[in-house]
Design goal:
The complex is a heterotrimer of chains A (432), B (294) and C (443). With 432 residues, chain A is an alpha/beta fold. Chain A has 19 helices and twelve strands. In chain A, α2 packs antiparallel against α15. Chain A starts with 5 loop residues before the first helix and ends with a helix. Chain B is mostly helical and 294 residues long. Helix content of chain B is 73%, strand content 0%. In chain B, α3 crosses α13, α4 runs antiparallel to α10 and α7 runs parallel beside α13. The longest helix of chain B is centred in the middle third of the chain and has 34 residues. In chain C, a hairpin with a 2-residue loop joins β4 and β5. The chains are: A alpha/beta (432), B mainly alpha (294), C alpha+beta (443). At the A-C interface, α1, α3, α7, α8 and α18 of A face α1 of C.
Amino acid sequence: MRKVTLGFAVVVVLVGALVVASYGGAAKKAPASPSHAKVSGTVTMLAVWTGAEGDSFKAVLAGFKKKNPNITVKYKSATDPAAALSTAIQGGNPPNLAALPNPGLMKDFAGRGAVKPITFAKGTVAKNYSSDWVKFGTVNGKLYGVFFKGANKSTVWYNVHSFKNAGVKPPKSWSSLLTTAKTLRASGATAYSIGGADGWTLTDLFENLYIRNAGPAKYDLLSDHKIPWTDASVKSTLKLMAQVFSDTSNIAGNPLQTDFPTSVTNVFQPSKPKAAMVFEGDFVPSAAAGQTKAKPKKDYNVFPFPSVNGKGGDYVVGGGDVVCLFKDTPAARALITYLASPGAAEIWAKRGGFSSPNKNVNPSVYPDDITRTTASALAKASTFRFDMSDLAPQAFGSQDEFSDLQAFLKNPKNINGIAAKLEKDAKAGYKK
Amino acid sequence: MAVAEVRQPALRSDVTPMTIGQRFAKVPLNVFLLVVALLWVLPAAGLFVTSVLPKDIANASGWWNVFSKPSEVTFENYRNMFNNDTITHALWVTAQVTLGATVLPVLLASFAAYALAWIDFPGRDIAFVGVVGLMVVPIQMALIPIFSLYNKLNLFDTIPGLVLFHTAFALPFAIFLLRNFFAGIPKDLMEAARIDGAGEWKLFFKVVLPLGLPAIAALGIFQVLFVWNDFLVGFTLAQDNVPIAPALAGQLRQFGSNLDVIAPASFFSAVIPLTIFALFQRYFVQGLLAGSVK
Amino acid sequence: MTSTSVGAEFPDVVRTPPAPPPVSPFRQVLLPFSFFGPALLLLSVFLIYPAIATVIRALFDDRGKKFVWLDNFDRMFSDDIIYTAIKNNVIWIAIAPLTVTLLGLVLAVLNERISWASAFKVVLFLPLAISLFAVGVIWRIVYQQDPDQGLLNAGITVAHDVFTPPGVLHNALPSGNALSNRFVLKQPIAAGDTAKLALTGILPEDVPSGAKQAVDPKPESGKITGVVWRDFKPGGGKIGVVEKGELGIPGASIDLLKDGKKVGSAKTDDGGGFTFDGVSGSGYTMQIAPATFRAPFGGVEWLGASLVVPAIIIAFLWTAVGFAMVVIGAGLAAISRDVLEAARTDGASEFQIFRRVTVPLLMPVLTVVFVTQMIGVLKVFDIIYAIAPGSVRNDATTLAFEMWRRSFSGQNQFGFGAAIASFLMLLFLPYLIYQVRSQRKNA
């Protein structure tokens, strides 16, 4: 046979060198502690905000630049920050800061040492946030994140004309919501719009029902998977969901093929809406912005998620974007501290489409009544809980739980089967 | 031309060629192909019509309704697109990356293909099969290792970084195509040049490269199409200097498919590769064929 | 047949390796390396190294810390979604490459006979110029289930409505218990009785124009009188009772039946009232004509779990057939006219020529198209990502897609993803063997 050729030898050497280089990366030195003196440098930041939201966030960053003229912030938006970040972290070059869509992801990253604790900002955060929100930003006793943008997910949006035609008022309890839906149907309208193609709309509905039906204590247990998904409280909540899901002639279109934005535009129409109500959070109007001609109050409005068995009328389940530190520099520390201040939040709050979890934000800066209502409900809730699927490990809370509830939407009779499937997937998801 | 030794099928010879029938047969044929063409155009036409509709109307009902209300047409979406710095910068980046990632692989592949076709060296056949085998490596597999490497070499978010990545992944097919094409150059021609005292480099530039032009042109067009429309590579390996496809994805608002942004930009970005294909169609076809078929 | 080289520019030359040049260290090592070296360098860095790194990575856990031998592969083959992915890959491979090649062949042959061949080529090539990202957007619109939005279902609806037009009150429901779900009066009715056919679920704007306040029917002997009305006023109203502000439904047709046979029919007036004269006895039944309530066509769920794979394959064909046609068309153009003419004068029909002459001569081109499609299909990723809605990703997935999803979509299962990638490379092995063998044959 032929002897080893030069080309082959070169390949072997090269590949060897690369393998060594990639597996033996030297640890980088931690940066010097920040001084309150003039900080300068560049900060990179990644978040999900684009379009109008991106412009608003850039306005927030402009406010930072005014205070810190020597720091340049490079902002990049990504539709799927989790995907962008996991590549960046694997490759060893994450941005300085990133706004994560949920604390579950933060926990994941903290577990693998990708995010750094922000103990230096503890004072600012404690001053501006309620203890609930500080807790959500804490992993194993260390503060890791600042919640910059909050979301109140305990809201139901409705078409004003449909409600008027049917002669119904926003219901206060779950049972009167079901009656309202029947009346809407009798009036010729279709009551529900469900964005079931996006699984998270279904987990949000489940969570709102669960916290009211089972109570906050059980909610916490289920969040940590300390009780199984086959628990009676889960099954009775699924039964409540099935009351909506099985009313198929009262749901617009095919809910499994309806994505969230469509579920909103179904309702947000000045005339001939495809449905009268949609369950989702305070960000619903921004999903419809520019897509329809519907006007707030005149064409659409909002009511709080109704109580179940008389409980939970003012409970709020919500979410939030948590800003975390991936690469520690003095400039990055300055930015994350700034984002925890009420001044930063008020810049965006004024522009609309924003609820701040920061308790020192002045409510008068919100641009309209609807936003003020949903935002202060977030602040004033007697009980606030974080979106459960956002707290769960990604593999369960953002993947399997979605598809399981989608299967339930398809076949709402199969309560025991779905509960068992959820438990099986949760077991696998929480193990990792 | 080429095809000399074809097994003649045993055929009856008592039928005369159809003439009138043929002429009539053309009508259904034309109609059939027209229908096929229509089927092919319709989905893309939807994108175009959507791109000239205001967004609230585009969302409310199917795009074909425009034909009953043509007054709704607006070029506002296009105006917004050109006023958007991110998009215009992305188009500029795309142009540079496409140029680099077309010229470089063609050049490198030509060198390699020449060596594989006309220079005898040990392990040559194995090398060729190896190169062809690399055609199957999926791009996704390289993302993480290359991402790490680029950060060490400061190639992340640079145009050379994108060009090199695209070049590498274009090489297997390019070498395969060109090697087969070059191998078809008459030996006499090469021998004559060698006798005239031409060295390998001279031979390459004076004989092989000019003769290989059709294949090179074909390759070039293919590469332009591919690089211009790339999403994954630009998305992963760039941050501020992203090409058009990932830049567009970045323009999506958090919820929904923002047709008012996607439709005009997709359409506009398709115009350039399509023009290149329409203009160079002939070379593309000739070259591809000559190289890949043997 | 193997020695027939279609379309090659210099086919008369028998390909033998060039004569060995005088051996010198320079010629043997440095010279070929100076040509081949740069390409080799890039291939090593960007393809060979990642491929090897991936196989090694597959033997570690998801965090890359622990060596786990073949655990990832073990997990892979007990995973339901991977099973679906493999099944879908088989479907793709069985359908897509062959269909692309055949359609490309047929269109290329037909395209030769028309005067606007170039334009046709550009049109079929069009999808290739559009980024797969946009292709996804385009086809999601085409496949929308709502016939007001999705082109395909809109087309089907037009055809559907010709044969079975939707009813004017397709959204209506019976109100109360008097009517069955099929709008048949549940209790038999006799002469002198009144029938109150209450309907709900009708939007005010859907009530036929000209409707007036509904009138409660009065019993008359020898007749059956009745009313059809929208039994709803804001808040709901009293079910089954004609109230003020509730409109009659004009123009509805009512059938009177006895022993299952139709004995009469009537149309309602503006107040929804109707009368059947000259009836006697009892045992009648009554229904509102079913056509009034026929539901409109709701659209096919193209992107549902059961149809999503074929739907995506069709979108893929849209992008791939143009390329195949152009390549095969070029091969066709290179076939000597003389051969075809000879066959024609021998009296062969067009189909015979196609089957006995054209196809065999094109075999090498067809093989190339087919094989490149096979590779492309195994790698297919973007188009699934772009078209499949979130709710059916588990049904639409393939190995290449699943590999991306497990590693990059936030699941961070890098060991698992690498295992899928390694398995995928294994699937390419037959192709590699094919290449080696065809290379040997040529050498």
